[in-house]
């Protein structure tokens, strides 16, 4: 509900004031209330052979009236023959009927036109001032249906249609302009807009060494009505790279609490400095950012748009005729957003071990045999499927995988069932081939960026001439996902903008001063994709090579120069790891039981409750039928075969010929 907090006066009093002011302005311009032409009641007789431009001025001047002939009337050269006798009103009607003339009395002069000179014109009145305009037009009584001088006001748009003589149209347009001008000078009013879903003020988030500012509704409104931001300069969220140098601690303790700032040096003013101690370029802050003022609309010097962060509301100060445009716009901006759950599965794959184990047809670990099966696969097929998965992870290409692995999976493809893929990866952890590092989940709003960050920071001291500074070095995994919901033929699709930064911190060998410097390795992936609700986007290609030298030696003997090599061994280990990112967005639906927001199922994301109940009943019936059929057990995706304790030892793993 929108609350109107403006200064109110009686509506009837304000209308009366506006109407009186409008009439006063028009009367000062020589306009009085329009009525019938004030002819004398005496009689007259006209007998002459003259043109209209000769007869009409004399005819009206005899009545003491000014006359204005249109150019078309003055251009008629035909003479009028005959005798016209009667009152002045009767003589005029005979002249008008016989010559096709039309007269309009505006209160100060008679305007004479041809019947063919009727015009249709348009003007407009501000919506809040419709009643004032209608009251003013009713007071002057310019309209006359008998002569065809009429006007019509459209209440929904404020459009006024005028039909009649040219002078009548000019008067109506002058009245509308006068009313509109008085409305512009009317006292401004305040309006309070509480927001339910959108943020009124800008929100700032710090992500690592970046500071992201997301504009609120107040900034959006200022950008729409201000010329400064209306020429393509308003670009939504802004991002600023923060300084890596930490502020010094000198003067921040108790000893420096009583110190005063140094006095100015004459007329010289010390310029402001940024975090790096450098003087930034001159860029005065815009008035819209300082005071929330807007002066772009014509006559809007008193317009103010202010964000109330405490109440999450917008306060607008503007003239009454412009306040309705804020109502509709704020109503469209403050809408309930669709919630989206983002699940990110980070997987590390040892490429070397994947190549080594990928050629094994069988996998046995003491008393357990594990195979991967789909609905109608045999155990041998499952073991072969695992071998194909291992080989694919080792080669970085999974195009040869069977349907169990989502029909033509590619590193960078879309997974129809990401949960099954992660389950298969988890089964490989015992081999050390793949490792699910983490599976963070976050819920965000549609079109709002979700950030998942796991990083570490080190502070490097850097000595200067007089003091030392600390510089922040940050590295880790940062995932930024912006979802956008698109409905296509009733099926939800989610467009994702994905930005991935993955890095780590290592240290260089010690230098002559026994100092190690941090070395930061960064990998980044920026992409966009459109997938269905519940599907997963698999991204790969972030490869890390790590080498390590492990030294084993006999104490004392291994430290003897030259001879020490006989009592120690140095083992070099190299790891070739590829990091995969599985991004799975899910729409958050309203739980019909608890009334809470819960993520939708990847398989039945948009089904209604009735369809869910029917599906559950079918599943229960199928399961009961399978339990009664003991001769045909249901196949399981994973087979675990127990080997008896007294059985022969398992044969060695077979290897494919190279």
Most strands sheet? 7 strands, antiparallel
**Spatial gap, N to C terminus:** 75 Å
| Envelope shape | elongated
Number of strands: 31
> Could you tell me the radius of gyration in angstroms?
43 Å
Mean pLDDT across every amino acid position: 69
Q: Kindly name the structural category.
A: alpha+beta
How would you describe what is shown here?
This protein is α+β, with helices and mostly antiparallel strands and 658 residues long. Among the domains are: 3-184, Phage tail protein beta-alpha-beta fold (3-Layer(bab) Sandwich); 188-243 and 286-336, no CATH class. The protein is 23% helix and 34% strand. The protein has 13 helices and 31 strands. Strands 18, 21, 22, 23, 28, 29 and 30 form a 7-stranded antiparallel beta sheet that branches. Strands 1-12-17-16 form a 4-stranded antiparallel beta sheet, with helices on one face. The chain has a 4-stranded antiparallel beta sheet with strand order 24-25-26-27, with no helix packed on it. A hairpin with a 4-residue loop joins strand 7 (101-105) and strand 8 (110-114). Helix 1 (11-28) crosses helix 6, helix 5 packs across helix 6 (166-184) and helix 10 (351-357) packs antiparallel against helix 11. The longest helix is centred in the last third of the chain and has 20 residues, at 609-628. The radius of gyration is 43 Å and the shape is elongated. The N terminus and C terminus are likely disordered.
